[in-house]
Amino acid sequence: MDSAAKQRVLVVDDEPQVLVALEDLLGDEYLIYKSDSAHRALELMEHERDIAVVITDQRMPRMTGDQMLAKMPKSSHALSIMVTGFADLGAVINAVNDGKIFAYVTKPWNPDDLRQKVHQAADHFRLAQELARERQLLHDLMDNTPDGIYFKDRELRFLRANTAFARTLSSASPDSLVGKRLADLVGNDALSHSSDAADLSVLNDNRPALDVVRGLSLPDGQHWFSETRAPIRTPDGEVIGLVGISHDVTERMATLQALRESEDRFRKQTQILNSVLEGMGEGVVVLDRDGKVVIFNRSARVSLGEAPEGLPPSEWAKHFGLFRMDRETPLPLEENPLFRQLAAGEHAELELFVRNERVAGSVLAVTATSLIGADTNVERIAVLRDVTRQRLLEAQLAQSQKMEAIGLLAGGVAHDFNNLLAVIKSAAELALREAPEIGSQREDLEEVLAASDRASSLTRQLLAFSRRQLTRPQRLNLNEVVSNLERMLRRIIGEHIELSAELAPDLGSALLDAGQLEQIIVNLTVNARDAMPDGGTLTLRTSNVELDGNYIELHASVAPGSYVELTVSDTGTGMDEATRRHIFEPFFTTKEIGKGTGLGLATVYGIVQQHNGHIWVYSEVGSGTCFKLYFPRLAAKAETVTAPRSERPLPSGSATILLVEDDDAVRRIASKILREYGYTVFAARRPKEAREIMASRSHVDLLLTDVVIPETVGPKLAQELCKAYPGLRVLYISGYPGAAVARQSLVSPNEAYLEKPFSPQSLLEKVQETLREAPKVVL
After folding, report:
1. Which of 638, 610, 593, 388 is nearest to 511 (CA)?
2. What's the order of all strands across the beta sheet hosting 536-547?
3. What is the pTM of this model?
4. C-beta of residue 320 within 8 angstroms of C-beta of residue 305
5. Per-residue pLDDT tens for 687-701?
6. Degrees (nearest 5) of the Cα angle 609, 612, 616?
7. Residue 500's closest CA among 531, 542, 439, 447?
8. Which helix (H) or strand (E) holds 187?
């Protein structure tokens, strides 16, 4: 969102980390101002008048939060949210009772709850500002319109009038009319008696009098005014006064030609209004007292379809396909807004779902009300507003917020899991080097290492889901991925579905991310399973294909050439053409609410596109569905033999290393690896221990630190130690990939970095590589 369009939020707290946390939580939606003291916050509010929400701590030096709120500038209309501990609830409750704060949250706060409260406060501020603007518009209308406007009570005393009307009566200002009757202001008894009689007629008959022409002698001559009067009612219908509008129509009355011009102008205005009506984005339906359609504009026809002449509202639900918002229950007659208007004359609002032969499905917000004409023929008007996209966006927003929360959780789980994998993988590799060349012990250890590799792939998928991992394309054979997944896929689909894997023995390779390819296959498998509730066959087939000009004619976006093809087909319920056209759209799903996110096939499509591939789908209702995925085939490559893990020599060294890692298991295994291969290692769990070690040692060559550690972050600790001990080299380790850490501005891309889980080989090689580089320089 453009920062200029964001609402402004002021955060006040004497703790810098709280200010940073609140800015991180709210910065995407709002423009954040920060202040570490109440006094500076008050100064800021003097200059920034558009602050919507003030979030303040209660306990602050020199001035508490409630004291600061009591001193807020009168010009500020910001709403206040107080962040407090349980001990401060008494002060907060008093502030709430005094109307000083909008809401409060207790520490530690719930991020979703705080975000919701800020959102509500910002909306409240926005609505208050809009109301103030509406009042100003009404004030401007009263003061700037050339027509005279006035309001009277039932005793015919003026309550309010605008400048134009005061000028008509030769009064100095509108305020001079308040509390007086017309007879008190003009010396013409006939005029005042006639005007009073017209006013009483409107009040007694409880109906407006429109376009009553009256003459009035003014200093510059005779003028004619068209006067419109209408009763003012309370919500329960009681008449408490009237409003009048006086329009100068002197020219219209001057000559017959002026009258004809006025009539012509009126006809043109009618044509414009009809054009506007037909061009409106909202549907407009007007009925007379008997329910006959008077107006049915273009947008109404688009939203509902054509309305046959004489169709009564009681038949609308059946004819137009009107349903409740559950999309299954036909709209009952008593809930039809137009029928309610005809039956009881009540204002009615309703959202309903429309589905018929012409309209595939849309959500309409219907507002029905009465129009009172001069001929007393009461008409009903309904305004139809298509809110399908708005409701869809609201649903998508709620879904995306849920997925964002799940993504954050997945990222955290993956990070912690990588710490465990670092220990498992390193310990297994060390044990493998000591294991006999032949025997079950070596086989078991190799199985552990293979499982840890698969687990590493899983964490990459979790990190990709949380948008903290980039793709890792590599030369890959689709057959290997399908074979590795086959056992898991059988568990996913259940025993009632047969799984058939037809893998081409000579299949070529493609440049693919193994984890994301697994995600594609699993998503398509789950969809196929859901399409075969009574059982069936799921077939996975691979092959080499050459796409030529004939195929290109049907699929112009696919370039001719050599591809590897993955086909996933089922014998399930299938899809119609209308559904097939939308299946790759985000959040589109045919499943029941709560049983599908609408993201599976959108994710598949995005991954295929990211790998320069193409996807094609064929389906018919009752005949199953077939997905075909094409990935560019790589040229054949000579096979290379890789030395077994246990035979690869591990590099040794003799440097002194300070290891800072808060995970005990990772710290122990890393220390063991380094010490066994010649290094002197001092291990610390917290920055305080690291500082003490550095102070007690004459020389340390390398700082090996986790990026995220208690009390601070690794880069800050490294900067501090490198400044104090020039010549120190730094190597960072983390469960997050380097790209994600770089995006958070924690570690620059050119600094030494090692991802967890690491093997003894990768750790020792990275340590040697870092020791060969120049020391970190801190200015």
Report:
1. 610
2. 497-502, 536-547, 561-570, 625-632, 614-619
3. 0.35
4. yes
5. 999 999 999 987 899
6. 60
7. 542
8. none
